[in-house]
Amino acid sequence: MENMAPDTWQLPAGERAFLEPLADIFWQARNPEKATPMENYMKGKFAFLGIQKQERTLLSKEFRQLPENCRTEIVLDWLWKQPWREFQYHGIGLLEREARKAPESTIELYERLITEKSWWDTVDALASNCVGPHLANHKHLIPDSVSRWMKSGNIWLQRTCLLFQLKYKNNTDEELLLDCIRKLCYEKEFFIKKAIGWALREYSKTNPDWVVEVCKKEHLSSLSRKEALKWLQKRSDQD
Description:
This protein is mainly α. The protein has helices spanning 13-28, 32-41, 53-59, 72-81, 85-98, 106-115, 120-137, 142-151, 155-163, 174-184, 190-204, 208-217, 222-238.
């Protein structure tokens, strides 16, 4: 665990007034004993203060929404620069609550955060809870965003292409999802194969026949196919 407390002195006044007390609360609540297993669970990729989700939610309840005098990008950039993962989790919570009314240009912020300090814990939340609602509100952004992300070579942006429709249900663009799957199904990257299966599994709750056909006809890895059919298999076993 880092030994120096978060520094907010260079922030503008409004953002500092919001973030300084939050940083102090998190810092005072740090628990090295809890931090170690949290860091181990994340493969040692990130430092943790040792504040588990339930405690973090209670500690930060006064900081769940940004005041009007706070600029989202400045706050999120500061949170993302902190070495402790709890700050990124808090940032995602802020974005999730603003996702359905975020301005069109927020897609640029989402993209940047997906590609910085990237791992499944932040990327998946950003993809399904931020990018998903945002693109549902600004559908004209979908073709260009998905095209750029698919061509980027960045596995986290590509994973986002597969996952942003997770909660769309009947509004899922099957053609777009299938196109992404076909372009990525030969990838050996675990997080891509897993995301293909996850996207199909979630959609199987809405259109099971379509998912079964995709699993039969498309070149899917054994991992992707297993994940895709997991919910249908469980339902079948219960019948």
